[in-house]
Amino acid sequence: MSFCHLFRIEINMIISSLISTYFQPSTNDKEFEKWIATALSAVLDFLENRDGFKIHSDKSPSEISKIFNSSKIPNKGESIARVLNETIENIIKNSVRVSNPYFIGHMTGATPNFLLICDIIISALNQNVVKIETALSATYVEWQTLCWLHRLIYDRSENFYSKVLQNSDTAIGNCCSGGTVGNITALVAARNKAFPNIHKKGIYLSYQKEKCKRAVVIVSERGHYSIKKACAIMGIGEENVISVPCHLFTNKINLSELKKIIKKLTVEKVKIIAIIGIAAGTETGNVDDLSSLAKICKDNNIWFHVDAAWGGALLLSKTHKKIVKGIKNADSVVIDGHKFLYLTLSHSSVLFKNKNSLDTIRHTANYIIRDGSVDLGRTTLEGSRRFDSLKLWFTLKVLGQEGYDLLIKNAIKNAFLLAKLASEHPSFEVTSQPETSIITYRYIPKELKMRMVLAKKIHVTENKKFLAELKNHSFGKKEDFIRVTKKVNSALNKINTNLQKEQRKNGKSFISRTTLQTVWKSQEIVVLRAVPFHPLTNNETLAEILREQEELGNKLFAKIRKRIMNEEAQAIRFFSDFLI
Fold first, then answer.
1. How many angstroms separate the CA atoms of 235 and 246, rounded?
2. Which stretches does DSSP call E strand in 156-310?
3. Can you tell me the mean pLDDT for 258-263?
4. Whole-angstrom distance between the N-terminal and C-terminal Cα of the chain?
5. Can you tell me the distance from the alpha carbon of 193 to that of 199, in angstroms, rounded to the nearest whole number?
6. How far is CA 542 from CA 413, 418, 547, in A?
7. Are 539 and 549 in contact (CB under 8 A)?
8. How far apart are CA 476 and CA 467, in angstroms?
9. pLDDT at residue 306 tops 50
10. Which of 38, 42, 460, 509 is most buried, by CB atoms within 10 Å?
11. 503 pLDDT band (50/70/90 cuts)?
12. Phi, psi for 275 (deg, rounded to 5)
């Protein structure tokens, strides 16, 4: 027997062993059962956190990066047991406990335990919902789920949805990987309506035909960063995203300013592709006046898109759906499942009022998404996609609208509770109106809080009253007052920034931070941003988080107070002599 023949036999044996070990499905494979049990145990231990580990790993990002600093692909494979152990020690144990009730800084958080079952099914079935040939029942599950969401928003007749479910050529929306893709899809449809055939002829010729030198998208200053990203990708350009000021504290779009902007753009013969309503902003959770926006869009024949990635879930709440009143008049709406619908990553949907809105982005290929097929990929920007719609379908079946109503009520109650605790606390100031389980506030030292409240009141009064108040408090000049308050706010910004960093480092709890405009002229403030929508977050949790923040803030203020007073005489008077 030749060496080559022996070599081929050995190779075939290795391949056969590899196939039988990793690719042969078996319900009686003890080794496979052991892997599953080990992985599941490690994940559940991490989630349960009985040992009270920090929300974040003790290892710093730079330390973790060193674990994964090899750029070479392993030449030879290792045992599952060894790689699984490495995964547990280096990955699972160095992950973020986003499901912890004290992790209330982002929109990623707790999920129902049964979603683990869904993710196992999704990965095991490996359905690619771009085409029905790789996603038989998954195609119809996704389509039904989209109908459920569409009905929540637009509430069309039973006959309408019956026809949609039976008509493979109708497209009322798409499931997608996230709100960014959803917003891009909606704005592409809006752009294509504003410029017919732009998807075929391109921007240059389409602008020429419409005698247009500039086209814009309008959104409030609370608009998500994905709007600029979408406009950059579509060739509209980031600079052509027009930002409209918001009302302070409520963070709702200023409709008077919007009307002025529309009038100005109309005179300049600028094409307005879409106006976007926010429901609700990722920074403060506030919702624009959607009904008024819808009327403005209708009166000016402008596409009305609503970014309801966070707030769309409110439609499932009998109590709170009124917050998004007017959403049914939108031409398109984005809702994220992996936010306020408590799904695991990732899940989002974009829905359209008009069943023909997606016609301009229909595409076909000879080998898939053929013309006349029911392939979902015909009207999606994405190609291959997971069967993630199963998660929302499954959860709606298990919880129902009543279950979601309870979760949403509890989440919003938490936001108002935190706002109450912070506003009544001597060392905190609420900086935005709570509305949809997102709240911003900031630390202010006890001796400054009432002074800053009065200073803010003076700042927003009419000019004559303003100057009179200044004279009563020894400031004399408006410029001096503004300079002093700016210095104080700058100091508070540093304190709140470092407070948030220290709290994250401590790992007991987590709150994010952002920067908001304030009533102070040419000033912005750093605020703490909480998203207390975890079902297990409660009064005790929130009070404990504030206690830790107060302690951290007091330590930071003690370090900076003396320096400020030594540097600025005006600040000394502010700290010491400003009467309440």
1. 27
2. 173-176, 215-220, 241-244, 271-278, 303-307
3. 98
4. 101
5. 10
6. 12, 6, 9
7. no
8. 8
9. yes
10. 509
11. very high
12. -110, 135
Residue 329 contacts by C-beta under 8 Å, 6 or more apart in sequence?
A: 290, 291, 294, 298, 304
In this structure, of 21-35, 72-86, 123-137, 280-294, the range with the lowest mean pLDDT score is 21-35
Q: What domains are there in the chain, each with its CATH number? A: 3-97 (1.20.1340), 175-363 (3.40.640.10), 408-577 (3.90.1150.170)
Q: At what angle do helices 136-154 and 389-424 cross, to 10 degrees?
A: 40
Structure token pair of residue 559: 């370090």
Q: Which two tokens stand for residue 507?
A: 């790992």
Mean pLDDT score of the chain: 89
The alpha carbon of residue 456 and the mean position of all alpha carbons in its chain are separated, in whole angstroms, by 31
CA atoms within 13 A on the CB side of 374: 17
Q: Tokens in use for 97? A: 């406990």
Q: How many residues does the chain have?
A: 580
CA pseudo-torsion sign 249, 251, 254, 255: negative
Q: Give per-residue pLDDT as tens, 321-336.
A: 999 999 999 999 999 9
3 state SS of 131: coil
In angstroms, the Cα distances linking 117 to 111, 113, 340, 507, 522 are: 12, 8, 20, 29, 52
List the 303-307 sheet strands across, edge first.
Answer: 173-176, 348-352, 332-336, 303-307, 271-278, 215-220, 241-244
Nearest to 347 by CA among 517, 535, 177: 177
The first and second tokens of residue 190, run together, are 């809006």
CA pair distance 483, 380, nearest whole angstrom: 53
CA 565 to chain centre: 41
Q: 347 or 14: whose pLDDT is higher?
A: 347
Question: Is the pTM for the entire model greater than 0.85?
Answer: yes
CA distance 69 to 426: 47
